[in-house]
Amino acid sequence: GYSSQSSSSRSEKQAPLRLPPGPWQLPVIGSLHHLLLSRSRHGGDLPHRALRDLSRAHGSLMTLRLGSVPTLVVSSAEAAREVMKTQDAAFASRHQTPTLDAFSHGGRDILFSPYGDLWRRLRRLCVLELFTARRVQSLRRVREEEAARLIRSVADVCDVGDLMCRAMNDSVARSAVGSRCARRDEFLRELHRAASITGGFNLADLYPASWLVRRLSPALREAQLCDRNVRAIMAEIIREDRGEEDHLLAVLLRLQRDGDDDVDCPLTTEIITTVIMEIFAAGSETSSTTLEWAMSELVRNPRVMHKAQAEVREAFKGQHKLAEADMEKLTYLPMVIKETMRLHMPVPFLLPRVCRETCRVMGYDIPVGTKVLVNAWAIARDERYWEDPETFKPERFETSSVDFKGADFEYIPFGAGRRMCPGMALGLVNMELALAVFFTTSTGRLPRGRMNNLT
Ligand code: HEM
Description:
Distance between the termini: 34 Å
Low-confidence stretches: 1-9, 443-455
Bound molecules: protoporphyrin IX containing FE
Radius of gyration: 22 Å
Cofactor: heme
Keywords: Heme, Iron, Metal-binding, Monooxygenase, Oxidoreductase, Signal
Organism: Eleusine coracana subsp. coracana
Order of helices and strands: HHHEEHEHHHHHHHHHHHHHEEEEHHH
Helix content: 40-55%
Mean pLDDT: 86
Number of helices: 20
Number of strands: 7
Oligomer: single chain
């Protein structure tokens, strides 16, 4: 198995590696059967739930083998702090899969790039150019216009949840590439498809070293096709860009045009395309599913709904337009969003890291190349850190200083450390404004909550 293989590759004199415990494994499929069994028990496709149950039996550092991929599952705040803070540098690379490789063109991107020069350059761009407080501020007009559009359309549709999703997507789209993308629906459909191809358990990703599996894999072919479609739409957007606006694509194209001082990692159009694509992917669905969950929690908790509504109506009393500046008056609404993300972690396992060098974590050895999943979903519902963890109670944040900025490891919806989400501030203002809009207009029509039956 995995354990004897990794210890035999070490020199004779060294003690064998002490791997974190885990459930028993089968030849070829490894630990997959545990996930499949749990899936049939829970009646849904919820690996974060299955892995929480397994970690209760095996511990907060747990070894699995998913197909041929050695995997470490991290399920406590203490272990997450070890991996994402104490030893952040050792875990600052992403785990690559063949399908992700198809979209990132060999890891030449921001979300999944290995820890190295290109990532460092793109990350610097994100932090210093794309997602600065000033930029978030300068995109305010986009959000306010989208909010106004949302108000007008809430009046004539009945699925508010669906509408919110569109509003989030439009807002991210306009921040990323300017005027709303003409082929938006098609584009989002393709991105959704990309997420399900790369996020699922397909043979190519489970057996990345097998040449035969790669050759025969429908997932890999589908990934390549989907990548081509997404890039064709992006190419159209770039062609049409007149460089007048302040959106993120314009910033990157300007940097490219104004001469590239970085000869080792030039900003090619291919890389710019990938980065913009990934900003869409990272910003749209995370924000829209959070809002959808917020709505369904509000429906289930009328007390919270009334309190949040009263606060918003008071803050915007007598105004005809929702101005973002007034959002600063709100204190309860941000807690509603915070609590929603605690219970419905938008990215339950964060984005998988990979161990770059064999290291020790809490007394166990983690071999180089191990894929690392941090079960942030399980940690945020753990009764060791949260009182009454399954209850939706925004007030818990009134007395608690726990925040999502990456320092409190019991609550890490945006991750932590070097690879933490750089789009947090933009995501938050987007979500807060859209939810406020809902309260100023809501006429008692409630969202259908596509996902109500999931957890
Ligand atoms: C509710 C909203 C959002 C959530 C919950 C979220 C969550 C995350 C998480 C968990 C990660 C991985 C962190 C880690 O490995 O420690 C991440 C990375 C990232 N996010 Fe977000 N995100 C959100 C919104 C956004 C938005 C709006 C943008 C951009 C417009 C964005 C851009 C990115 C990028 C570029 C990365 C990759 C960073 C890197 O690998 O260095 N995110 N996000």
